[in-house]
């Protein structure tokens, strides 16, 4: 391995160094370069932090590193922390700020850090950090080293960049149709442009277009099954477009089109309070900038999402999400048939959400159906990665219904969802070919104040909302709901409000039944519900809402 690396280094020196000419440090200060400026760098840690040896990533407490960095450190046993550490983008911050301030100390320290990393982390070395040459750190580190190369001419740096390009070009390491693949393409393109290597440039561009088509569908929905990653991909595509232009290449039309379509998906997945709905690996505290949105208040994405709201630009608007589509992959959870509901300025039904990528029992639980608002089939095992079909939809201004079905537990299960706006009501009818049980997760801001006769009342101060469960065949109350909060054996009744955080929150576990009709009425603790045959009338604070159940398991 070392002989191959050495040969690669000699090739890099012979073929690339002649093209490599670092600009002299002008008396008036360094020149800003496209490789070092722009939006590719994270905001923290700052250059003064790095100079002080204080590294703070992911909101975790700062870690002190010495002049001779220990590249095998893993203070939090957190692979996301390791990834950021090994990416060296914090070193790149020093170079970018050197260009802005002219402080030679920033560049000198950047050289020390990068040279130390290269010396201590040979590919395949016995003492090399296990995460140093993982595919994502390679991708994110490449632009940082390219940035440094604009001010430093050194064989060790040129050889390292050539090795990075070789690994980024390797199809066996490429993550097609994934945000990591996009980062790999950006890294390879930056190296290819820096050294005028058309082969690397062409490979990066061709992969970037193909990968974007795999990752973003024609409607602009991200296929990674976590809408918050649409924000990341949108931002990184912006970096990709800048890199392409810096390289003097034309931006491929297909790439630009997919990039332009993403904002509508991001906006659709943003609740009236400005925070993204926490689906898949999406924290509940992600607040996007303002993006363009569709004129439609209800949007169905074939990738597996329904997003609906009363109106745009109104914090009191009702809002809901429904999940269906392809089986779980990438950043998705087993959340098919799941719903969330926001009304009257409050999150009511939410998801357990995203905690971290660490392989802990809690993380594994957050991926399961039991961490979502779904029907589970009693006594049957989940068949992971099962697709769910949206079989029926009816969309009107103030009322929408959707019916979904799958065989995720080996038997048919069907969920029909009705949302009525202005007179705010959500109704959910669940049926299956075997006994089922519903799970409903309330927002942590809500406290259960009553649980009796199939009716759960939650409160936030003086405000109330009610969840009623009925047998659709008889309209009799489905009694026996259990409210669980903060349980650990097994996990239930938890919500993650942000990265590496969790808080106890009420979860309703329904009784076992052949079918269940669940009605959520915001703004009241006493909604009268009456039935006449298949017609159900809900007396909401705004007036009566009538819905109809069918023998096939649908609502209208």
TrEMBL record:
Matching InterPro entries: Chondroitin_lyas (IPR008929), Hepar_II_III_C (IPR012480), Hepar_II_III_N (IPR031680)
Signal sequence bounds: 1-26
Heparin-sulfate lyase N-terminal domain mapped to chain residues: 61-281
Residue ranges of every copy of the Heparinase II/III-like C-terminal domain listed in the record: 327-502
Domain of life: Bacteria
Keyword Lyase attached: yes
Location of this chain's protein in the cell: Periplasm
Keywords, in A-Z order: Lyase, Periplasm, Signal
A single GO cellular-component term on record: periplasmic space
Single annotated GO MF: lyase activity
Protein name: Heparinase II/III family protein
Annotated organism of origin: Microbispora oryzae
